[in-house]
Amino acid sequence: MTPPKDFTAAVGSDMRVAPRRVLFVTRRTSPQVKLHDEERVQTFPEVLVRALLAVECLAIALVLMSLFFNAPLEGIANPTNTPNPAKAPWYFLGLQELLHYFPPIVAGVLIPGVLITALLVIPYFDINIEAEGFFLRNRQRRLLVSMGLSAAFAVFLLFFDVYVALPAVAVMAGLMLLAAASSPQSPNRFRRYLALRPVSWWIMTWFLFEMVVLTAVGTFFRGPGWSWVWPWRS
Fold it and tell me: CA 20 to 30 Å from 151, out of 55, 162, 164, 229?
């Protein structure tokens, strides 16, 4: 009987060139046994395509906004007349809101530095590399740690009177409780989605949620002297 193709005998020195075959190594060559094939190979085409589509959609949206809406620019700057309140651009208003509560070294250096370091380091955690749902394993322990961190963060915000950031903490804590009580087989689609979110998703979502809240407060709820004002009152 003819032997199967997978066991065809051949002469060579590289097992990767002829996988699943019997190779006879001659005296004039040396077998390459130090190399091995990885089970998974990192590739980027799909990620690059998604990023390219996102950039193109964002560029189209910005062009359309610039065509139909005028930028809310003020008059020419006058060094003798400082506006009150003097607000930073919208993408810095969250940081300016933090400066209202914390000393400059804390709001301008420590908090952004810790956040940037965390975003750089967290993707390399084993719990994040697995990319599985955060509450799928060790559910009780992870839920206890999450609720403890949420409570500690809420106490920290209360100590510095940062009440505007408390709703985001409450919402994220509620979502974590819901995710811990859900499973990938839940009949509700939203609960299935939460159950499959990894730890990086929770941290990044919490960070973005807080920045959105702080930016919105700095944009619509701050008046002269950075005092609290309601948007519908002059």
Answer: 229
Domains identified in the chain, total number:
1
- Does the residue 97 lie in any domain? yes
Quick check: is 196 in a domain?
yes
Give the integer Cα–Cα distance in Å for 47 and 173. Answer: 31
Q: pTM, whole model, 2 decimals?
A: 0.67
pLDDT tens for residues 191-227? 999 998 988 888 889 889 999 999 999 999 998 888 9
Q: Measuring CA to CA, which residue among 191, 148, 143, 151 is closest to residue 169?
A: 151
| Domain extent at residue 205 | 87-226
Residue 1 in domain: no
